[in-house]
Amino acid sequence: MGNDWAIARDSLSKITVVSNPNNELVTIHGIANDLKCIGIGTDAAVFQSVHVPQYAFKVYAKDKKSKVKIEQNVYYILGGSPYFSTCYAADEEYLVLSYEAGTSLFDCILQGIHIPKQIIQDVDDAREYVRKRGLNPRDIHLKNILLQNGRAKVLDVSEYTVPGNDFRWEHLKKGYEQYYHLIDGRPVPFWLAEAIRKWYNQRKEHFSFEELSKTMFHLLYKK
């Protein structure tokens, strides 16, 4: 695609992303009318330009910008794969990625959109592919998986060089297998999904899936 994405540089320079403590989502400062924010995480925010909508620009907070080159290198190691986005370039504070259409599994839960079993298999296959490339598939959660034409697209590979298992995917997979039938096709209230996300991000290092389930049902039925 060349460097036609560079048309968005001036607009991106008007945006500042600031990280927050306690693993909270980043804050965005500045305005660029031709940019649309399409994703917010704890280290970065993702934007799409009306001029080059085929790209997604992942802008890191200034104190997190060391992750730009790390994530770019992960994409290089992964090579071309249908499970992940394509990284075209990197600037000092942002990555230039392929824009991926679809609905995150988090939004599927909120909207009551059916999540097929194929998604689980696709993510398992993607994780195995990552391992074969010598990397470590971490930080795979509801907001980092897109439902795209019935298949999974995994976003955010920034932690794939970090050692250890955070068990995020194992917990999600077990939750899908044991409890998803209870909410399949039913919208889950945002307050519940957000409460569980915050609790999970602030959890102790060692905790059981049963503890997670107990907390989820306590939040659900106390209302």
How would you summarize the topology of this molecule?
Blueprint: H1 9-12, E1 16-18, E2 27-29, E3 35-40, E4 44-49, E5 55-60, H2 66-78, E6 87-90, E7 94-98, E8 103-104, H3 105-111, H4 117-132, E9 145-148, E10 151-154, H5 168-183, H6 190-201, H7 209-221
Antiparallel strand pairs: 1-2, 3-4, 4-5, 5-7, 6-7, 8-9, 9-10
Helix pairs in contact: 6-7
Structure description:
This protein starts with 8 loop residues before the first helix and ends with a helix. A hairpin with a 3-residue loop joins strand 3 (about 35-40) and strand 4 (about 45-50). With about 220 residues, it is α+β, with helices and mostly antiparallel strands. The strands form three sheets. A five-stranded antiparallel β-sheet has the order 3-4-5-7-6, covered by helices on one side. It folds into two domains: about 5-100, Phosphorylase Kinase, domain 1, CATH 3.30.200; about 105-220, Transferase(Phosphotransferase), domain 1 (Orthogonal Bundle). It has helices spanning about 10, 65-80, 105-110, 115-130, 170-185, 190-200, 210-220; strands at about 15-20, 25-30, 35-40, 45-50, 55-60, 85-90, 95-100, 105, 145-150, 150-155. The mean pLDDT is about 90. Helices cover about 35% and strands about 20% of the residues. Helix 6 (about 190-200) runs antiparallel to helix 7 (about 210-220). It comes from Lysinibacillus antri. Keywords: Kinase, Serine/threonine-protein kinase, Transferase. One of its GO terms (molecular function) is protein serine/threonine kinase activity. InterPro entries: Kinase-like_dom_sf, Prot_kinase_dom. This is Serine/threonine protein kinase.
